[in-house]
Amino acid sequence: MPSSKNVVSSPEDFDSDLFAQAAIALNVAPDLNDSGARPHDHRKGQLILSLHGAVSCEVQNALWLVPPQHAVWIPGGTPHSCRVTENARTCFLFVEPGAAAMPEECCTVAITPLVREMILHLAEQEPAYHSEGKTARLVAVLLEQLSDAPLKELHLPISAHPKIKQIADTLFADPGDRTTLREWATRLATSERTLARLVESATGLSFGRWRQQLHLMIALSHLAEGVSVQRVAGILGYDSVNAFITMFKKALGKPPTQYFSSLLYEGGRVQAQG
């Protein structure tokens, strides 16, 4: 991991809002565990870049997942909590409100090697850099590049509704649970049609699509930790590895091994050039 003047074991050790610069970056040491799991917010917008492993970020009614070489964007003033896989390496970019044309809602962003290197370089600079210096000029280019970065649909809509929360809690605890919508309706003392409408109105997805998206999020997190494709397919309760691979490829355009190989290739190529 590149050396950095701005390295902390928890983002709570660093108050980005004390600085008026357009953007500042921060490397987070690998021992960050649950320190970011407590809900908090910042005046500045926050980009959480995953260098290795995966990061999950929960905001109101949604859970966002950040695989390697991606980042989650959290607008300023948005309460959120974050968790990382054990092997995660992360870098934070804090952006002053109005300094860049960033989305007004949370989203997952694909990070190019150029943007990644600029963020890592910025993390090596003093946060109180001069507004007319070369660091400020680099930040201007960085924010322009970042505002054009492609967005990715790597999030799971969630809900505080007791019935949906009970389903979600069960599936997160046992992702291989294959309880049908009809069986859930019986368990929750409601009709299948009513429960189907409730899930769709709260999440925007049918029950089947919502559970598949939950499986995708869990799969990405496990795969980013190095768990085998065969093991992940078993955890999610798939009858065969091929069935899991088909789901993954349909959702992300590539089978799991190829998907993560492409991410590692990008990261390795950047490190080799650095």
From TrEMBL:
Keywords from the named record: DNA-binding, Repressor, Transcription, Transcription regulation
HTH araC/xylS-type domain span: 165-262
Domain of life: Bacteria
InterPro entries xrefs: AraC-bd, Homeodomain-like_sf, HTH_AraC, RmlC-like_jellyroll, RmlC_Cupin_sf
SUPFAM superfamilies on file: Homeodomain-like (SSF46689), RmlC-like cupins (SSF51182)
CDD domains, A to Z: cupin_NimR-like_N
UniProt-listed Pfam families: AraC_binding, HTH_18
Molecular function GO terms recorded: DNA-binding transcription factor activity; sequence-specific DNA binding
PANTHER family from the UniProt entry: HTH-TYPE TRANSCRIPTIONAL REGULATOR NIMR
Protein name: Helix-turn-helix transcriptional regulator
Organism: Pseudomonas baltica
Species classification: Bacteria, Pseudomonadati, Pseudomonadota, Gammaproteobacteria, Pseudomonadales
